[in-house]
Amino acid sequence: MRKAPLTLALLASASLALSACSGAAPPGVSASADASADPTEAVATGSVASEAAVSAPQSLPDALDNADGLQTVAEALKVTGIANSFQGPASYTLLAPEDDAFVALGSTEKTLFAAGDHAALTALLKDHLLPGHITPKDLGAAIDASPGGTVTISTLGGDLLTFTKANGTAAAPAAITVTAPDGSQATLDGDPVSGGSSIAIPITGMLGKVVAAS
């Protein structure tokens, strides 16, 4: 495979422009928790309710376990403990680097997973996590409605990601590109994966500077 919902308010270009400039998630994003919520905090405080997890639908990490081409990011969610946070009520959108994006890191990939505290890997994942449930269709509509043709959204790591769309045709819809502050880019690639109240959108590359402790 190479492979968040917004309400109708998203299509109001004036309000969209304001949200794009603010760096927050576009208006209407469906989120059941504060947009500044950090999924790692639930792990640290033990606030994820185990009873709720038993009766909850399949979580996003569980869904990723069966997603072709996304096995590495699925494992990363587990080893960092972030996977547990998807059992809670909050909604998140994971821009999920495909397996090839991790392979491209070379020896850095092994270092990220081998580190005892997984701090660098956790930071990397947070740079790919957005608050709320946002689909590629939502992003496309937001970009189209934005006067500048761009939408910016803050990650849980504090970075501002910029989403743009190239010209497309009926036969070949325009691809959506996401750019990190350091200039790294990736393209939304293929069908999203849903689990619980969250969603993962496969992307072709790694966003942000990857720093792994030696």
Structure commentary:
There is one protein chain. α5 (71-80) crosses α8 (119-126). Residues 1-24, 26-36 and 42-56 have low confidence and may be disordered. This protein is an alpha+beta fold and 214 residues long. Helices cover 33% and strands 17% of the residues. β7 (193-195) and β8 form a beta hairpin. The protein has a single domain, classed as FAS1 domain. It contains nine helices and eight strands. The longest helix is centred in the N-terminal third of the chain and has 10 residues, at 13-22.
CATH topology: FAS1 domain
Q: Strands across the major sheet, in which order? A: 2-1-8-7
Count of domains: 1
Overall mean pLDDT = 79
Fraction in beta strands = 15-25%
Biggest beta sheet summary:
4 strands, mixed
- Helix content range: 25-40%
Task: Report the top-level CATH class.
Answer: Mainly Beta
The named CATH superfamily: FAS1 domain
Tell me, what's the shape? globular
Q: What key phrases describe this protein's structure?
A:
four-stranded mixed sheet, globular, FAS1 domain, alpha+beta, 8 strands, four-stranded antiparallel sheet
Topology (elements, then pairings):
Elements: H1 13-22, H2 39-45, H3 50-55, H4 60-65, H5 71-80, E1 92-97, H6 99-103, H7 107-114, H8 119-126, E2 129-131, H9 136-145, E3 150-154, E4 160-165, E5 176-179, E6 185-187, E7 193-195, E8 198-203
Parallel strand pairs: 1-8
Antiparallel strand pairs: 1-2, 3-4, 4-5, 5-6, 7-8
Helix pairs in contact: 5-8
